[in-house]
Amino acid sequence: MKTKIGTILNEDIVQQLREQAAKQNRSMNEIIHDALTFYFQASQTHKENRRRAVERLCSRPFNLSLNEINDILEEDYFEQ
Questions:
Q1: Intervals of the chain under pLDDT 50
Q2: Lower CB density within 10 Å: C or N end of the chain?
Q3: Which of 10, 4, 68 is nearest to 33 (CA)?
Q4: Is residue 57 part of a domain?
């Protein structure tokens, strides 16, 4: 089931959206739908990766690779 919504976007975003829709021969609705779907999937994947990292850290302290430790330290937790 689809639901119609109304929103206000910056004009430059709308212009980029129109250009991409024309280049890809798709509707603006399709592009927005795909972008939101990707956003929600990426957000869920990100949360799952963070949960696994914390689980590993707590279950086996300091058994993380240097890259995993750096990824955790570089995370901006204030954006959550």
A1: none
A2: N
A3: 4
A4: yes
Calpha distance 27→18 (Å, rounded): 8
Q: What is the reported pLDDT for 56?
A: 77
Number of domains in the chain: 1
Q: In which domain, by residue range, is 40 found?
A: 11-79
Q: Which of 58, 80, 54, 78 is nearest to 68 (CA)?
A: 54
Within a domain: 6: no
In this prediction, residue 30 carries a pLDDT of: 95
The pLDDT score that the predictor gives to residue 60 is 67
How far, in Å, CA of 71 to CA of 55, rounded?
A: 15
Identify the helix (H) or strand (E) that includes residue 16. helix 11-24
Whole-number Å distance between alpha carbons of 17 and 7: 14
Strands (E), the chain: none
Measured CA to CA, the distance from residue 22 to residue 28 in angstroms comes to: 9
